[in-house]
Amino acid sequence: MAKTYQYCVAENWGKGFIDHDESQRITFKGFPGNVWQVPAYNKHGNLWIAKVAGAVKTKDEAQTIVTAVVDAAQDAWDDNNVEGESSDDKIERLGSKPADITLEE
Amino acid sequence: MSEYKTIHGTKVRSYTTDPDNPITGQVWYDKTNKVLQFQAAGAGAWATGGALGTARFSLTGVGTQTAALAFGGRNPSGTPLAVTEKYNGSSWTEVGDLNEARGQLGSAGTQTSALAFGGENPDGNNQDLTEKFNGTAWSEVADLNTARSSLRGVGADNTSALAFGGATSPKQQTELWNNTCWAETADLNTGRTNLGVAGISTAALGAGGDTGPAHVAITEQWNGTSWSEVADLNTARSALGGAGLYTLALGFGGYTGPPGNTNKTESWNGTSWTELADLSTTRQALGGAGTQASALAFGGNAPPGTTATEEWSDPVLTIKTVDTD
């Protein structure tokens, strides 16, 4: 099956990391672990990865990075308890438990 | 083209550099690169902005895309914060802390005239505390009548504000601030926490939120006297960011319930919501500021708590080259 997306790791430095023109041309999706998804086989996606000096990852490599960050966040959520606090109050305080993320091909 | 011809004539001007403030549709000849160019207006889009100094979620914010204020929230470990930062359109700078650290607080005003109210403090207690910001420092003023967290607020400055919803049964309470004290007024029709909001104290919008059993798409408008239900969001969610006015608003990000966060952006035209381009960083419990055409999204829980800032522009103005092939 042909790939729909490609992945890279790049640290978001803020202003100019993704500009409006780039955002109009292609769809960006950021994931935990500084993993970024852009369209595969796309000139503008390739140019952006080069601009941000992104380290290209396979989908499986990117998934491993994202999963590690999400697992750590889930463990931190499980371990963050206040005596006498109800589950609803915990969600109110911390937000819902971080959900698993599955990257697309 | 007749309008363009009337304004600019039939000759295309030549420039060695791009004109300073071209209008949409303006055409010129780029002498340096020997190409014909024009100013185009494209669909709305998000771009990255300067990162917050402190990663956090359940924060709040006020102001515009180029003059915003972010305050309170929780660090990635869940500890409430007092940190306040101001944004100048490029970067965030820390200014005076809140007197009381808290997450899930409400807010109103501008970068130089803001109000912070309610929230949950480090002891896990709902707060009624209200603080006023003068551009430099926070000072305590009269308390809310009902202590609560996960409420929302709107207001043109720190002299007039509306606080509504929040985590205290039945989650419908609405209070008005007159620069001296809070007074209870007409309740929301649907009690909930963590709405997306826009507007001022006499004309507000509250969308989405968490009723307890569900993350909802319900939208209500405040006319200065009472709330009335209007058209739903396309995507039901809570803990979304909001920007804009009663009739022209933007909602973005949030939590949809399992499987998790959303990056969807919706635009409100006074009658209905329309889905637009997504945030690049999916998150909930983020801050929002600005207008429907020029908004700011900052912080939130991605997870973990993030410093990510994004700037919304609609339309996106870009200089294009005429393709002569």
What report would you give on this structure?
The complex is a heterodimer of chains A (105) and B (325). With 105 residues, chain A is α+β, with helices and mostly antiparallel strands. Chain A has one domain. Chain A has helices at 20-25, 43-51, 59-79, 87-94, and strands at residues 5-9, 29-31, 35-39, 55-57. A 4-stranded antiparallel β-sheet of chain A has the order 2-3-1-4, covered by helices on one side. In chain A, a hairpin with a 3-residue loop joins β2 and β3 (35-39). The longest helix of chain A is centred in the middle third of the chain and has 21 residues, at 59-79. Chain B is mainly β and 325 residues long. Chain B is 2% helix and 38% strand. Chain B has one helix spanning 2-8; strands at residues 14-15, 27-30, 35-42, 45-49, 60-63, 68-71, 84-87, 92-95, 106-109, 114-117, 130-133, 138-141, 152-157, 160-164, 174-177, 182-185, 196-200, 203-207, 219-222, 227-230, 241-244, 249-252, 265-268, 273-276, 287-290, 294-298, 309-313, 316-321. In chain B, the strands form 7 sheets. Chain B has a 4-stranded mixed β-sheet with strand order 1-2-3-28, with no helix packed on it. A 4-stranded antiparallel β-sheet of chain B has the order 4-27-26-25, with no helix packed on it. Chain B is elongated.
